[in-house]
What we know:
Layout: H1 6-15, H2 26-32, E1 37-42, E2 45-57, E3 84-89, E4 92-98, E5 105-113, H3 121-130, H4 141-144, H5 148-155, H6 159-162, E6 172-175, E7 183-187, E8 203-206, E9 229-232, H7 239-243
Amino acid sequence: MTTMSNAQSTTTASAALPASFFQQDARTLAIALLGKVIRRRLDGLWLSARIIETEAYLLEEKGSHASLGFTEARRALFMDGGIIYMYYARGGDSMNCSAAGAGNGVLVKSAYPVTDHLSGAASLQHMQGLNPNRDGSPRSANKLCAGQTLLCRALGIRVPDWNARAFCPDELYIEDDGYQPEQVVQAARLGIPAGRDEDLPYRFIDAAYAPHCTRNPLGRNRVAERDYRLLTRQQTEQAAIIGGPLAG
Length: 248
């Protein structure tokens, strides 16, 4: 395996989001993570993907894992902000991080592959090799990380390796490369069982990448204010709007 140079190590360490970034309300953290880049070092390459979809979970609402109580497997959710919480979803790995307040966290729902100075064509090819189509052919960039288990598979992030660990600038971290979404889509979370606060609008998507997330919230037959809310960058800073229910 290729070793990381001192210059690379210094660059990644300075780029990584500090632990203090994660010490905020899970809903505002879910929005703040949109546009940030996940970096994963694997097999001598940096694999990278931009976060385009997140979901917030709070201790006091029934849709969260933490609402079911503390267990050793869920201990990361009860730790300080910025600790990785992983679990299996439909047979695949799923990555979250803790937020401010015990039991609160954010699910990294989907992302979009990044090629740049740190992650070149070889990195993208490696991600496609880790997460091919069922027939073995390369999965397109649009679909490579379009879902929480696809994302983890493409980046080689697994529950046994990362649950209850802090982000590490030498192996796995999140950085801010300056990109910010112009608009954010707010909608109800996906896959929440009936009667478990399924209507809470705690799912957030970068509007520019809406066609490439788990399920397009702006798709056919979707109606603004009934099925989703479109927020400007300024509105995302207003907690009253973020926490408020949709009209429908």
